[in-house]
Structures are given as structure tokens and as C-alpha cells.
Design goal:
The structure holds 2 protein chains of 2 kinds.
Chain A: H1 8-30, H2 39-65, H3 71-91, H4 109-139
Chain B: H1 2-21, H2 45-57, H3 62-70, H4 72-93
Classes of the chains: A mainly alpha, B mainly alpha.
């Protein structure tokens, strides 16, 4: 195993940068209705915020930040959110993923479609983030400091 | 042989540039895929999306409406592709605890 020099500059820069990267990822997901962006891009940014901690601090410390066991369940949750929205619209009498039949109390018509698009984007972002982190953890399994 | 390769590369590059000269300009309203009616006389999908995206979903970003609403089945497929990649990596690469007997 290679010995890794722990540079305090790298540690501090990554620790300071990570929350801002994740905040920007959330902004990209939430602002996808008005500007370029959406679930895939925002999820990749969220994953970048998690992975920079993993690269800088190593596996033992990043286990306190985001556990290795959480990556795949987060991805599964994202896919299930997307699929559940489709199933709800189907059971409410519409077609699969026809957002007009989704139920959010107090919202109807075009606004309902808009809000459901936001929910779908959140699901996509969660799936992309979880899967990217999970693939990184699988590749690094048992290696690293 | 070496010069033949360069000659092939350059000739293919010239072919590509020559082909791209025939493409319509960006945002050209008279291009086939930008017209309101297709050559067969039916309504083009693109013009329908442009005219109705905001009315249907109250979202200013047309690309988001197309990706997440009109073509949401396609987006579901993309998410499942990524999910499959993650599952395969999990199954192939993650170490299982081996029981010592």
C-alpha cells in the first residue's frame, strides 16, 4: 500500500469546497425549470461534492461523512421515486407517467405537471448521486488509506 | 504507407467539411425539421413542443419539459441504465465476507 502524504492544504480546501459544490448541485436540480440543468447534472455535482471528500480524506474518515453502505440504497430510492410517480399516475386512471393524474393537494393543471417534473428531477438526481458514489466505492473496495 | 494514412485523413476531413456545408443554418425556419408541417403534411413534433410546452407544464425551460414530461419514459430508461451499471459494479466488484471454517 502506498504511503500517502497528508497535506493540510488539500484537506482544508476539500473540506471547505465540498459543501459549496453540493449546494450548487442542489441549485442546479431545483433551478432546472428556469435555466439549463436538471437531475442528471445536479446529481453529478452532488456526487462530486461527496467524492472530493473521499479522495482527500481517505476511506476511514469519509465513512463518517457518507457511509459506503448508503450509496446503492440512495440510487435505489431515486429510481423508486421516479417509478412510484409513474405507478401512482397509472393507478389514478391515466397513462404511465402522465403527470396530470398525479395527486398533490391544492395544485391542478399545468402547475401540477410543473411540480411533478420537479419531483422527478429530485428522483433522478438522487439516483445519479447514489450510483456514482456506489461505483466509486466498489472500485476502491478495500484499497486506499 | 505513412503518407497514404495522412492522405486518407485529410480527404475524409475535406469530405466532412464539404458535407457540413450542405446543412441548414442554426435556427433556420425553412429547414425541413423546423417547419410547422412535415413533408408528409402532418404536424412536426418540434413545432408542437415549442408552441405548447409552456401551456402544458408552466415551465419556462422547454428542454426540461421535453426531457421530464413529453419524453419521461426515455428519461426513466436512462436512469435504469445508470442503475444497472451500479448494480453490476456492486455484484462484480464488492468484496463479500468469506467465512473461515
Amino acid at each position: 500500500m502506498n504511503r500517502i502524504d497528508e497535506s493540510p492544504i488539500v484537506l482544508i480546501v476539500c473540506r471547505v469546497l465540498s459543501p459549496f459544490i453540493m449546494l450548487f448541485g442542489l441549485y442546479i436540480i431545483a433551478h432546472g425549470h428556469y435555466s439549463p440543468g436538471g437531475g442528471f447534472q445536479g446529481g453529478a455535482m452532488l456526487a462530486a461534492g461527496l467524492l472530493i471528500i473521499r479522495l482527500a480524506l481517505g476511506t476511514t474518515l469519509s465513512e463518517l461523512h457518507f457511509r459506503r453502505a448508503w450509496g446503492l440504497p440512495a440510487g435505489v430510492m431515486g429510481v423508486l421515486i421516479f417509478f412510484a410517480i409513474g405507478l401512482v399516475t397509472m393507478f389514478m386512471g391515466g397513462e404511465f407517467l402522465n403527470y396530470e393524474y398525479f395527486i398533490i393537494p391544492g395544485i391542478t393543471g399545468a402547475m401540477l405537471r410543473s411540480m411533478t417534473i420537479l419531483l422527478v428531477e429530485v428522483g433522478v438526481g438522487l439516483a445519479v448521486m447514489g450510483i456514482i458514489v456506489s461505483i466509486y466505492d466498489d472500485l476502491m473496495d478495500g484499497k486506499g488509506n | 504507407m505513412k503518407y497514404l494514412r495522412f492522405l486518407l485523413l485529410i480527404s475524409f476531413g475535406v469530405l466532412l467539411v464539404y458535407g457540413s456545408l450542405g446543412l441548414p443554418d442554426r435556427g433556420d425556419g425553412e429547414a425541413v425539421f423546423n417547419r410547422e408541417l412535415s413533408p408528409a403534411g402532418t404536424v412536426n413534433a418540434a413545432s408542437y413542443h415549442i408552441q405548447n410546452a409552456y401551456k402544458d407544464a408552466a415551465t419556462p425551460n422547454m428542454v426540461t419539459v421535453i426531457l421530464a414530461d413529453y419524453r419521461s419514459f426515455d428519461t426513466l430508461g436512462e436512469v435504469i441504465v445508470i442503475f444497472t451499471a451500479g448494480i453490476i459494479c456492486y455484484l462484480l466488484l464488492r468484496k463479500r465476507k468469506v467465512k473461515h471454517e
